[in-house]
Amino acid sequence: MCPESSRNIREVQCASYNNKPFMGRFYEWEPFAEVKGSQKCELNCRAIGYRFYVRQAETVIDGTPCDPNGTAICVAGQCKSIGCDDYLGSDKVIDKCGICGGDNTACKVVSGVFKHTLTNLGYHKIVEIPEGATKINITEMSKSNNYLALRSRSGRSIINGNWAIDRPGRYEGGGTMFTYRRPNEISSTAGESFLADGPTNEVLDVYMIHQQPNPGIHYEYIIPGDNVISPQLLAHRRPGEPLNGQLGMPESTSHEDEDLHRETDILTGQSAGTFPVIQPGRFPSHQPENQVPAMQPPRQNREHNWKQVGKTECTTTCGKGSQYPIFHCVNRITHEEVPEGYCDSSTKPIPEEEACNLFPCPAFWDIGEWSECSKTCGLGMQHRQILCRQIYANRTLTVQQYRCQHLEKPDTTSTCQLKICSEWQIRTEWTSCSVPCGVGQRTRDVKCVSNLGDIVDDEECNMKLRPNDIENCDMGPCAKSWFLTEWSDRCSAECGDGIRTRSVVCMTNHVSSLPLEGCGNNRPSETTPCNNGPCAGKVEWFAGGWTQCSTECGSGTQQREVICVRKTEGNFDVLNPYECSYLEKPPSQQSCYLKPCGSKWFHTEWSTCSKSCEGGFRVREVRCLSDDMAASTQCDPQLKPEEKELCNTQDCVPEIDENCKDKYYNCNVVVQARLCVYTYYKTACCASCTRVANRQPGFLGRR
Start and end of every PLAC domain (predicted)? Predict the structure, then answer.
């Protein structure tokens, strides 16, 4: 493994060509990684500041990573995978428990969803993360105005504590590093999250700052199984120390071996007096516990001792950092530094932490993320939180705002506009009223139009401001006036008192002969008295009483007997109806009305068929009227009469009219010149004009 501070091995290989001319010029080279397949193990380098790359070598040095972030390496120009055990070609991978080549049985996944309904605002505990947890994932199931918070069991706030909302980023706590994410994109629906690899070294509590209904919090972490040996415990265990209730060393180990163990370094397994050659970044393997080191350490004496030669750099430049003393092994007399093996390691002072740079760091404005725009289109507002913060003891604290008065405070509000709002446009004028008289409707075309002029869905415009696209129209009362007939010529009685009658109707354009209120209440009389003189042996019609009405409601009919009689003194003689034939016979039937039946469908007569043959159609008007002849909506739609039907479906048979013939041979010119509208040409070219009229209804007319 290369040290973290060292340059990338591909950078080193490409930079080796900086002092070699290419096409007569010198360039500085950097790795070009945008290649695929077998090219990954070629040394492709790009000229810095230019837009071309060159294959400087067919293969890179063995051990060069194939990809910047991958684990495979190049060997003899081929990509070879490396297992987690660092063996070339091994297929071992780290399981979810963090064990190389494991089978996922050495740990347990703990997961769940916090869905409790909360009522009080503020901090509410969600879940407890135990010590030793790994692969921690705390995620809000959808975006909300709530915030996640993290605190140690000792009470130390890690993220979003004390009502101060931290910015997204990385925060140390519980022995691991937590990544705090808070998506702020307008289109994003993802919620906040805490992510950490672990393991934790203390119990942590996750809270939610409740401000609106809980969308649900998903939590998941991994804990070791009951009988799992922790890798950390193995690395720091002293030989012979109990492990999970058992000693790590066999009971038969001799006391000599125990003494040997005590003189063995607990991390490397090497003898404390030897100087092992350690490869960079790797620990040497442990020596067998029953094997004596090949080289005995030099005898320790009092000629050398430990001396403080300085201190480490302070971890911070302000706000209380820490530093440690540095001890080297020196000659007691000359004070020259010598290898540490000449000093007794057991007497080496343990470096103790010392505070440094205690003065506070300058306060600064901590600028939060902008909120979503208050409007999805048009001019809106967005807000952000501005806090005065100060760093002390590796913690960022919220302080009084006057401490930041030396800095200009950023704006907390700002105008925003995601896009220009769409608007309503009236595309057409009002249509004609749907009825020639009375109350009807008229319409117009109203569309939602974007700022680019495109017609978009109505939802993109403000529905409260939508202009009406349909409205009622009143064309005035349909009834014009009362229409009267002349009085009847005959008196109802040949002698004595009688009456003369006339018809009175209120005419409309839709439902003929219906009495509507539009004609007024002063209906003219339909009868007038008359007298043809005294009766003396004259014959006359005699009418009996009316029968019951034929219906229980609405309009019905009644019947009565009408006979021809001659009146004599005190008697009536029944005669043959013929004897009264010269007299107007009284009606033997009349309409009757007992009570209202409710709304009914009324219709006009059918119109003339649109075609005389080969299928035309005819129409009629249908209205729902109440008992008082007013428009109603109470009729049964299932019983509504048809308003349109087919008619004259028979085939057309041309009729030959002997009186309709063409008098000239060039009548086709008359038709082409559209002269058939004139009476002269219509007569002179009767047959041709008639044929074209049958093909084009409405073609002919008078002028």
Answer: 656-693
Q: Is the pTM of this model over 0.70?
A: no
d(Cα 315, Cα 221) in Å, to the nearest integer? 32
Which of 427, 457, 460, 461 has the alpha carbon at shortest distance from 444? Answer: 427
Residues 137, 221: Cα–Cα separation, whole Å:
6
Contact 511, 479 (CB under 8 A): no
- Asked if residues 540 and 574 have their Cβ atoms less than 8 Å apart, the reply is no
Cα distances (angstroms) measured from residue 323 to each of 349, 394, 396, 485: 15, 13, 20, 123
Residue 140 has a CB neighbour count (10 Å cut-off) of: 24
Residue 586: which of 650, 524, 467, 499 has the closest Cα?
Answer: 499
The residue written with tokens 């921690």 in the block is: 136
Q: What is the pLDDT of residues 41-92, one digit of tens each?
A: 999 999 998 888 889 999 999 999 988 877 888 999 988 888 888 888 888 8
d(CA 172, CA 315): 15
Q: Which amino acid is at 284?
A: P
Beta strands in 395-435 (DSSP E): 395-398, 413-416, 423-426
How far, in Å, CA of 186 to CA of 371, rounded? Answer: 9
Preceding amide of 199 cis, omega within 30: yes
Cα–Cα distance for residue pair 467/424, rounded to 1 Å: 7
Assigned token pair, 577 = 């109806």
CA–CA gap between residue 412 and residue 365 (Å, rounded) = 11
Residue by residue, DSSP assigns 333-346 as: TT--B--GGGS-GG
- Domains along the chain? 9-81 (no CATH), 107-224 (2.60.120.830), 305-356 (no CATH), 364-418 (2.20.100)
Q: 414-447 pLDDT, tens per residue?
A: 888 777 788 899 999 999 988 877 778 899 999 9
Query: Which of 248-252, 286-290, 507-511 is most confident?
Result: 507-511
Q: What is the pLDDT of residue 242?
A: 34
Q: How many residues would you count in the chain? A: 703
Residue with tokens 């994003």, as numbered in its chain: 188
| Cα distance between residue 207 and residue 151, in whole Å | 8
Query: DSSP 3-state assignment of 345?
Result: helix
Residues 6+ apart with CB under 8 A from 204: 128, 129, 150, 151, 152, 153, 158, 173, 174
Phi-psi region of 245 (alpha: psi -120 to 50; beta: other; left: phi over 0): left
- Phi-psi label, residue 13: left if phi above 0, alpha if psi -120 to 50, beta otherwise: alpha
- Most confident region among 109-118, 234-243, 283-292, 605-614 by mean pLDDT: 109-118
For residues 634 and 414, give the distance between their C-alpha atoms in angstroms, rounded to a whole number: 58
Q: How many CB atoms lie within 10 A of CB 450?
A: 16
Q: Do 220 and 127 form a contact (C-beta atoms < 8 A)? A: no
578-620 pLDDT, tens digit each: 888 888 889 999 998 887 777 888 888 888 888 777 788 888 8
453: left (phi over 0), alpha (psi -120 to 50) or beta: left
CA-CA distance, 621 to 615, in Å (whole number)? 21
Burial level of 206, CB count in 10 A (0-12/13-18/19+)?
A: buried
Residue 262: per-residue pLDDT: 31
Q: List the one residue out of 604, 598, 595 whose CA is nearest residue 623.
A: 604
3-state secondary structure of 389: strand
In Å, how far from its chain's centre is CA 563? 86
* pLDDT beyond 60 at 243: no
